[in-house]
């Protein structure tokens, strides 16, 4: 009897087990790594950068063909344009390995809401790819450029953005979930990294771009795109982008310098940043506060007569660094307040957390309020190390 019961349970379990009813073989898919979206004459234009498997997998260095293939199609809707790719590509696009999404500047100005909606609804799309905006060119042209070192341009763009954000910090790797959160948030607006083609576009589309030590065409991350809700309204330069990231505590590592008392520069490597941003009601009006705590090392000394064994010299470097960083953060905030009137920092969100009743009063016209709101910036800089040497050899040369 016991045996019959066990057999019954076993066969019932087999029936309940799911099979590979929706499996798809690799030779039936186009592995999509880079996607560009433009808009022209009310039509969406998608550019799909897919892997050329025979070139990537070859152990003999390939046949000289491009490592990727780029397909394009148009449609009245974005989904229609994506499906229409099948008229020129032998396989259906597979989104699970997408590394970079490039949005055309013209489309970004009109609004990226439809693009985000489609990606969020697609079950194949993951949240581990980065999003950028093409600057002074179409997204399609960006994805046609072949890059050195990395065979696949989309992988190169992904790695370059990640490295730049971690080591220099004027850029930021924004993922789909983060972009969506900032778009729908009350009291905060998104920013995206810009990407620009440097050199001849047509030369960059062929393998000859890779056959020389200095490529004729490169892709460079340049500037930060400022959005109001889902629309691009302007650009920040590199200096302003870094200042914003200092204010938000997003700088993981960067480089800056101050001037020495007797001329020359001391270069500081920033190794840690922590920022506290808040909005408080003072005399019935909102007031913003940014407090940044930064740690750094002395990376380079180009001046003479600065004794790094003297605590006063370290104190001088710290105070001058604080003044310089405070200045660039204040300048960036003022520029965004007056020229763009859009809160990309999250002061509105901070007010909602600290004074919910007051936020209800201001949230309808928050960007206008933000543009006139006073903001106090305080920077605390600490020098941790001076490197493997103390004083510069320049001091000894001067004394000879």
Describe the 3D structure.
This protein has 400 residues and is an alpha/beta fold. The chain has 2 domains: 211 residues, no CATH class; 163 residues, GMP Synthetase, Chain A, domain 3 (2-Layer Sandwich). It has 14 helices and 13 strands. Strands 1, 2, 3, 4, 5, 6, 7, 8 and 9 form a 9-stranded mixed sheet that branches. The protein has a 4-stranded mixed sheet with strand order 10-11-12-13. A hairpin with a 2-residue loop joins strand 11 and strand 12. It is globular and about 80 Å long. The mean pLDDT is 91.
Q: Kindly give the count of domains.
A: 2
Low-confidence parts lasting 5 or more residues at pLDDT below 50? Answer: none
Q: Count up the helices.
A: 14
| Alpha carbon gap, first and last residue | 103 Å
Class from secondary-structure proportions? alpha/beta
The count of strands amounts to: 13
The portion of residues forming beta strands comes to 25-35%
List strands and helices in order, with pairings.
Elements: H1 2-16, E1 29-40, E2 43-51, H2 53-57, E3 68-75, H3 78-84, E4 92-94, E5 100-103, H4 105-110, H5 113-121, E6 130-134, H6 139-144, H7 153-167, H8 176-184, E7 191-199, E8 217-228, E9 231-236, H9 238-247, E10 254-259, E11 265-282, E12 285-301, H10 311-339, H11 347-354, H12 356-362, H13 366-372, E13 375-385, H14 393-399
Parallel strand pairs: 1-4, 1-5, 5-6, 6-7, 12-13
Antiparallel strand pairs: 1-2, 2-3, 7-8, 8-9, 10-11, 11-12
Helix pairs in contact: 9-10, 10-13, 11-12
């Amino acid at each position: 009897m016991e045996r019959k019961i066990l057999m019954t349970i076993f066969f019932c379990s087999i029936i309940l087990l799911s099979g590979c009813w929706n499996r798809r073989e690799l030779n039936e898919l186009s592995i999509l790594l880079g996607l560009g979206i433009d808009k022209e004459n009310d039509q969406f234009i998608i550019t799909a950068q897919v892997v050329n498997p025979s070139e990537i997998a070859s152990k003999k260095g390939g046949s000289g063909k491009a490592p990727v293939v780029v397909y394009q199609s148009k449609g009245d809707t974005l989904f229609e344009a994506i499906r229409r790719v099948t008229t020129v590509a032998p396989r259906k696009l597979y989104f699970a390995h997408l590394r970079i999404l490039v949005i055309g500047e013209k489309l970004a100005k009109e609004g990226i809401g439809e693009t985000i909606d489609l990606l969020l609804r697609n079950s194949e799309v993951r949240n581990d790819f980065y999003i950028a905006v093409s600057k002074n060119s179409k997204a399609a042209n960006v994805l046609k450029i072949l890059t050195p070192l990395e065979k696949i341009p989309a992988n190169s763009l992904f790695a370059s953005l990640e490295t730049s954000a971690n080591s220099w910090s004027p850029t930021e790797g924004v993922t789909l979930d983060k972009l969506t959160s900032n778009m729908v948030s009350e009291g905060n607006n998104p920013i995206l990294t810009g990407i620009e083609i440097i050199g001849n576009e047509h030369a960059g589309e062929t393998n000859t771009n890779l056959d020389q030590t200095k490529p004729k065409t490169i892709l460079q991350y340049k500037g930060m795109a400022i959005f109001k809700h889902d629309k691009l309204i302007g650009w920040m330069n590199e200096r302003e982008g870094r200042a914003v990231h200092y204010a938000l505590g997003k700088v993981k590592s960067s480089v800056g310098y101050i001037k020495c008392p007797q001329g020359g520069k001391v270069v500081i490597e920033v190794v840690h940043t922590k920022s506290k941003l808040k909005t408080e009601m003072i005399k019935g009006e909102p007031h913003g506060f940014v407090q940044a705590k930064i740690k750094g090392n002395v990376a380079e000394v180009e001046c003479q007569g600065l004794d790094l064994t003297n605590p006063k010299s370290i104190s001088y470097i710290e105070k001058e660094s604080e003044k310089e960083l405070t200045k660039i953060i204040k300048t960036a905030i003022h520029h965004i307040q007056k020229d763009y009137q859009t809160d990309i920092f999250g002061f509105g969100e901070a007010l909602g957390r600290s004074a919910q009743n007051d936020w209800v009063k201001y949230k309808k016209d928050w960007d206008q309020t933000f543009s006139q709101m006073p903001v106090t910036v305080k920077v605390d800089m600490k020098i941790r190390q001076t490197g493997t040497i103390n004083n510069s050899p320049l001091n000894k040369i001067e004394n000879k």
